[in-house]
Amino acid sequence: MNKPLKWLEWAKQIQAVAQTGLAYSRDVYDLERFEQLRALSVEIMREYTNVETELLTALFAGEDGYATPKVDVRGVIFQENQILLVREKAEGEWSLPGGWADIGLSPSEIAVKEVREESGFVVKPTRLLAVLDNLKHNPPGPYHVYKIFIACEITGGEATEGVETSGVQFFAEDDLPALSQIRNTDEQIRLMFELMRHPEKAPVWD
Q1: Are strands 145-157 and 70-76 parallel, antiparallel or unpaired?
Q2: Which of 34, 118, 130, 179 is most buried, by CB atoms within 10 Å?
Q3: pLDDT of amino acid 4
């Protein structure tokens, strides 16, 4: 379990308070104070990272409405006791196919869509494996994320690189490549193998 960076957690909490306040407050003075809080959250992030203020404002503090965690959905596919991973073009490391949930699609539909786009395989969802809070299971990041892992079975297609991927391959548990830790950690991949070996186990959560 990862120990959170205090400054990062404070920055995210300040941002969430500011975002929610801006969404629901009607008092002009309160709105001004919430804008100041949002600016403070960006300043904290800027102080401890190398990201420019404009980009932080757009990505970290650019959302509206009630502040809620983001949702990341990952498709988990096994063949002959090996797990399907895709190589991310962004950093050259490997991850389970998946990404941010889209409005209008269910978690299982997202898993099917992401697997097809990133690996070329057509799949059907078969089982919910885990719902993990990235505050407890991933390196520190700017967003609070719930990660949903869904087991899928290949029904068609073939291994094909996608717009965001430069490799598609199955790996054994004792021969895993360098993983994109912000997307899925070694611990999470090994948990998927454990759940594959024990399908009677209930989904893991929290």
Answers
A1: parallel
A2: 118
A3: 58
User: Does the pLDDT value for residue 3 go beyond 60?
Assistant: no
Rounded (10°) CA dihedral 111, 115, 117, 119: 170
Grade residue 194 by pLDDT with cuts at 50, 70 and 90: very high
Q: What is the pLDDT of residues 59-104, one digit of tens each?
A: 666 777 888 899 999 999 999 999 999 999 999 999 999 999 998 9
Q: Could you write out the DSSP letters of every residue in 126-167?
A: EEEEEEEEHHHHS---SS-EEEEEEEEEEEEE-----SSEEE
Amino acid of residue 78: F
pTM above 0.85, yes or no: no
CA 108, CA 92: separation in Å to the nearest integer?
26
Parallel/antiparallel/unpaired status of strands 94-95 and 82-88: antiparallel
Q: What is the DSSP letter of 199?
A: T
Nearest of 7, 10, 13 to residue 47 by alpha carbon: 7
Coil, helix or strand at residue 42: helix
Contact (Cβ atoms closer than 8 angstroms) between residue 76 and residue 96: yes
